[in-house]
Write a structure and sequence with these properties.
three-stranded parallel sheet; globular; alpha/beta
């Protein structure tokens, strides 16, 4: 499960848990990206902060792990590079990429790097999110190069949780509570390091 996780919240964790149960996955690897290609680096928190928050949020679940594969790789964090590396190190595993319905639509429009190759290397699980409707009939409009890979795409519905990282960051800036939106350990980390506050702590690349 890849993402910016800025910050990770209960919506992410519920999606991962539901996917693991629904598709019988042995575990879920959370992969915080270093530099999301669709965002400016200055618009996201330091990679180490996002990695550590993801670790704190998942450490109590024995089926969840966190990978540094993108955090430690220089340059933009493209999913195709990560899946190729995971395929190289886990050649016998069935790999699923868990993402949201909005990201799945981007993939089907060919907006991700090397989309055709990406769809051929792993299966995708598209989770519904508030404001998005998964409509398999629309996939028939995908370009001809992607159609053979549509069998690798699965969908699932998750309980409606109108939680977003964008809203959480805005709440912190406005000094509003984020309790019950993020795990307690993540809330404490945000407060300690003044993430998203009006006067945040200096950015850092290495561990605190």
């Amino acid at each position: 499960m890849g993402g910016t996780f800025d910050p990770i919240h209960y919506g992410h964790l519920m999606t991962a848990s539901e996917a693991r149960w629904r598709f019988g996955l042995s575990g879920v690897i959370f992969v915080p990206n270093r530099h999301p290609p669709h965002k400016e680096a200055r618009d996201v928190s330091a990679p180490e902060d996002r990695y550590l928050m993801t670790f704190l949020a998942t450490v109590t679940n024995p089926h969840f792990t966190v990978s540094r594969i993108e955090i430690d790789r220089e340059g933009p964090s493209y999913a195709i590079d990560t899946i190729r590396e995971l395929r190289r190190t886990r050649p016998e595993d069935a790999l699923y990429y868990i993402t949201g319905a909005d990201a799945l639509e981007q993939i089907l429009r060919g907006e991700w790097r090397e989309t055709e190759q990406l769809l051929g290397l792993c299966r995708f699980i598209g989770a519904s999110r508030p404001g998005y409707r998964l409509d398999p009939e629309q996939w028939s409009s995908a370009n001809s190069e992607l159609r053979p890979h549509l069998r690798n795409i699965h969908t699932m519905e998750i309980p409606g949780m109108a939680i977003s990282s964008t809203d959480i960051r805005a709440r912190v800036r406005d000094d509003r509570p984020i309790t019950y939106l993020v795990p307690e350990a993540v809330e404490g980390y945000i407060a300690k390091h003044r993430l998203y506050a009006q006067s945040p702590a200096p950015l850092r690349e290495g561990p605190p």
